[in-house]
Amino acid sequence: MNMHVKALKEIMAFQKSTQLLIPFALFARLVKEVTHDTLVMEGFRWQWAAVECLQEALEGFLVDVFDSMNLLAIHACCVMVMQKDMQLLFRLMWKFAPVGSFWAVNSLYQIPIMF
């Protein structure tokens, strides 16, 4: 089977499914680790529904980011998404974020764009 045909079939299968792509146990472990490293409160616990909600929001955000990066790559007449597309996307998000949005509120915590 051609590599491109296989990739397109996988994409179509993922688009039809409603399941989350990141395994729940791994994501929950990551959330707990980040919480433990950043919060000074001892004994902080996450409810299962809160972690699941956070995971759904994150995966939706990542889908939007990759969709926008794909549009930037197409605009640049490229077939592949490259690092410079992600850098440009994050710059545009921070520059043109509406007031009160996540990007406007958290612009002080700018993630390093150099990968």
Automatic annotation (TrEMBL):
Instruction: Tell me the protein's name.
Output: Histone-fold-containing protein
Gene Ontology CC annotations of this record: nucleosome; nucleus
Q: Which SUPFAM superfamilies match?
A: Histone-fold
Q: Where are the transmembrane segments?
A: 92-111
Sorted UniProt keywords: Chromosome, DNA-binding, Membrane, Nucleosome core, Nucleus, Transmembrane, Transmembrane helix
Superkingdom of the organism of origin: Eukaryota
Entry keyword annotation includes Membrane: yes
Task: Give the family per the record.
Answer: Belongs to the histone H3 family.
Localization annotation: Chromosome; Nucleus
The protein's organism comes out as Lasiosphaeria hispida
Q: What is its main location?
A: nucleus
- Report a single Gene Ontology molecular function: DNA binding
The residue ranges of the Core Histone H2A/H2B/H3 domain are: 6-92
